Amino acid sequence: MQPPIPFRKGHGTQNDFVLLPDLADALELTESRVRALCDRRMGLGADGVLRVVPSEVDADTWFMDYRNADGSIAEMCGNGVRVFARYLVDAGLVKRGGFVIGTRAGDRRVEVHDDDTVTVHMGAVRVFGESSATVQNMLFPGVAVDVGNPHLGCQLPEGSTVDVLDLTAQPGYDRALFPNGVNVEFIQELGPDAIRMRVHERGVGETRSCGTGTVAAVKSWLHSKNRTTGSATVDVPGGQVSVVITDDGSTLTGPAEFVAEGTLSSQWWTAHR
Ligand SMILES: N[C@@H](CCC[C@H](N)C(=O)O)C(=O)O
């Protein structure tokens, strides 16, 4: 019989996660279990799952096994990695300060600050093409951005607001350019160093924030001004984060909050295999 499984529920700017500490790398986290966990009625409810496992490459590093709510695997999650980092400190698995977390997009250095906000070194951000998204027969020009996972950042024309967009359905996108799907950001300029963003996430739907999406949004916004580097605050429906993009990397800083902790019922876990 499966012993009860501990979990934590947390969020970063309301992009929410079920965190499963699996220090012995023994949990069988199937697609069906991820979908059930993330379901807001039959499960705990979340945009994704963060499984905490030892890295196979480096004995001193913890690996973030991230899954989208539909059970799919993604390379990276910027809000998730902040919650993950805070968990490692809270659980006494690493010391507060700077350390490295393994992800499918590569190692990410994080700094957990005294106020529990977290800065993540998100690595290189690359624009790899011009494209567009379609929402309710309206075309939004944008650029394809690689933040370890794929994004399409669409800058709204001056004077437009992201509020009016209906993001209940997946925006249309070029399947040849994004063969593995894409996260789509809609960006509104607020000022010289401030933007707003809404996002439709691959494997989830519209979320209240997407950390990699905020980095992609700042890169797209800078690109629309013929700039490659710069910084901005990004307002999302769930709060605010700060992004800095330099020639050789990028950082994302924002909150990481815990909501609850408990154990999953063994019966429930077995029923959803
Ligand atoms: N919410 C995340 C991104 C999660 C992965 C994304 N849905 C994908 O499939 O690439 C973030 O905070 O970055």
From TrEMBL:
Its EC number is 5.1.1.7. It catalyses: (2S,6S)-2,6-diaminopimelate = meso-2,6-diaminopimelate. It is found in: Cytoplasm. The keyword Phosphoprotein does not apply. Pathway: Amino-acid biosynthesis; L-lysine biosynthesis via DAP pathway; DL-2,6-diaminopimelate from LL-2,6-diaminopimelate: step 1/1. Its main location: cytoplasm. It holds the Pfam family DAP_epimerase. GO terms for cellular component: cytosol. The active site is at 77, 77 (proton donor), 210 (proton acceptor). InterPro entries: DAP_epimerase_AS (IPR018510), DAP_epimerase_DapF (IPR001653). One of its GO terms (biological process) is lysine biosynthetic process via diaminopimelate. GO terms for molecular function: diaminopimelate epimerase activity. Keywords: Amino-acid biosynthesis, Cytoplasm, Isomerase, Lysine biosynthesis. Substrate binds at residues 15, 68, 78-79, 149, 183, 201-202, 211-212. The keyword Nucleotide-binding does not apply. It is an enzyme of class 5 (isomerase). It comes from the Bacteria. Homodimer. Catalyzes the stereoinversion of LL-2,6-diaminopimelate (L,L-DAP) to meso-diaminopimelate (meso-DAP), a precursor of L-lysine and an essential component of the bacterial peptidoglycan. Belongs to the diaminopimelate epimerase family. PANTHER family: DIAMINOPIMELATE EPIMERASE, DIAMINOPIMELATE EPIMERASE, CHLOROPLASTIC. This is Diaminopimelate epimerase. The gene is dapF.
